[in-house]
Write a structure and sequence with these properties.
alpha/beta; VC0802-like; Rossmann fold; 7-stranded mixed sheet; 11 helices; 23% strand; binds S-adenosylmethionine
Amino acid sequence: MKKQTYTATTLAGLEEILAQELIEIGADEVQIGRRSVYFSGDLKLLYKANYCLRSALRILLPIDSYKIFSADDLYQRGKNFKWEELFGCDQTFAIQSTVFTDLFNNSMFASLKLKDAIVDRFRYKFGERPSVDSKNPDIRINLHISNEYCTISLDSSGESLHKRAYRLDQNEAPMSEVLAAGLIRLSEWDRKSDFVDPMCGSGTIAIEAAMLANGIYPGSIRKDFSFRNWRNFNPELFKQVEEEVQPVGVQPVKISASDISRRNIDIAYKNAEAAGVLKFIDFKISDFKVLEPASDKPFLLFNPPYGERLTPDDTNFYAMIGERLKHHYSDATVWIISTPQCLKSIGLRPSRKISILNGSLECSFRKYELYSGSKKISSLGIGADK
Ligand SMILES: C[S@@+](CC[C@H](N)C(=O)[O-])C[C@H]1O[C@@H](n2cnc3c(N)ncnc32)[C@H](O)[C@@H]1O
């Protein structure tokens, strides 16, 4: 099968994780970029990437790449491209642009230029044109311009891959499914120790942990991918991918998720059901202030509430988390994502700190290793976060 070069996009900070995932599914020539990873593979690998990758947002197939020096260059080159080989007048399309250049005032203008070029080519060739559907197009075109470098790609994913199709409802601050999956990989959870999210909100972290531990890929839930609308879509090949990636030899692991809010636990429960992982997660309504560990050496990963600015309430709340961990979670491994300001109030010294964006907010993902015994506690650095 013909090999091609693809670009997988991701969130800032997850590039290395995505590269690892790509190597695991058999991608070649894996190279890390900014919020993206380049790789090569055949059509089957493209299907597999969309189906299996947990930390990717989109998988793009670059189809034309060149230098432009004016808006008209984009139009002319776009008009000369053989779009009719990729889709027809009976299909809808949309263009998503990212533009870092003085040639266009905004990305909308660049999208419009390319749209005009495509439409004019179809009109010239066939006397009719495909329609634009910005919400649910058959064909998604991705335009990226950086200075004079322009790359046009076909977006094989369609809606961003963080939309796994299991989130039926959400709490007030849900975490992106891609970020949750990426944090679990970054934490190097061994998929054997008991996993706990004690502030689970709509359940994203626990659901992603259950999917990872049980070899359930995002594609087994989400059925919709843009490559299904491509001329070269091969249903047999896609079926092969679905059959080949079935989970094998999975060891059961205990996953617990709790939250102070009954409403959030109801939401998380429904989402876990939709993801097919309800049987792997124990849900419970509980204030972390009184939550006891259910096992000897639990692995906690969570994102407590935080705002853009630190308030006195935040300081007390994070101090409570630190106290609870110190006095009730000896022998636990704990990873918390929050703002650096909030995390200071925890009063424990982290053994690792990773800077990461959650949405647009600069966050820190920190590891705290707790040990039983007062001597060990002091010698292993449980003290103020310096
Ligand atoms: C930022 S949200 C977590 C979002 C979650 N990761 C998700 O993807 O939906 C923080 C959660 O902590 C919960 N929470 C706040 N105080 C709590 C406490 N004392 N004990 C347990 N949960 C608490 C809130 O109800 C909220 O659902």
